[in-house]
Design a protein that fits this description.
Length: 211
């Protein structure tokens, strides 16, 4: 399996395109600049079959409807943030986008619990990793040895917890119980910034010294 990282918008939110040996692909967190994502997909000859959301903050959902409508595909989000897609106060655009409110149509599939999930030829594990937001999830692909961690864990940092629904202790517990237990060679694909690994963060992340 291959992945591509596309930083989008003023916050440079990482959108990930996951592709298998065929032309099917999954789009994770299309935060903005839908045209750039579409151009990449067309250039690579890829066919999206689903949109996965690690969480529903505005900078991770801004291009959802543009892609969903163009490719007629389903959007997946955790149940605790299903209403955030429609609500600019909950998704943060009311406060951070200076009048550019983000509203997305309801998700097609609600993730109610963690566990194994299959979409087309893609099989992965949904890990509930709340703390940055109450419905944050990470998508772990054990055979390819990477995890898409959203805004839970970054290279040398962790997600902010001062937004509505954020909880610092809960985030640290999520990282410790769900992410740091993965094999150390697991590549971490974060919601912002550069790629890292579980082992690197265990050794050098100053926010995780207590672990």
């Amino acid at each position: 399996m291959e992945w591509s990282q596309i930083p989008l918008g003023p916050l440079q939110t990482n959108c990930y395109i996951l592709s298998s040996s065929g032309k099917d692909c999954i789009v994770i967190d299309p935060g903005e600049e839908g045209g750039r994502i579409i151009e990449f997909l067309e250039d690579q000859g890829l066919k999206p079959i689903a949109i996965l959301l690690t969480h529903a903050h505005f900078d991770h959902i801004g291009a959802v409807d543009e892609l969903r409508d163009r490719y007629e595909i389903k959007v997946y989000v955790h149940e605790k943030e299903a209403m955030w897609l429609l609500n600019p106060t909950l998704n943060g655009s009311q406060f951070f986008m200076m009048g550019q409110l983000v509203r997305v149509k309801p998700a097609d599939v609600i993730i109610a619990e963690e566990g194994e999930m299959s979409i087309g030829s893609f099989t992965f594990k949904v890990l509930e990793t709340p703390g940055h937001s109450p419905g944050s999830v990470s998508f772990y692909f054990p055979q390819a040895s990477f995890v898409v961690a959203g805004d839970a864990l970054f290279a040398g940092s962790i997600g902010r917890t001062d937004l509505p629904g954020g909880n610092h202790e809960e985030l640290l517990n999520s990282i410790h119980d769900k992410l740091l237990v993965l094999p150390e060679e697991t590549v971490v694909l974060p919601g912002h910034g550069s790629v890292t690994s579980i082992g690197q963060e265990m050794d050098a992340n100053p926010y995780l010294n207590g672990f």
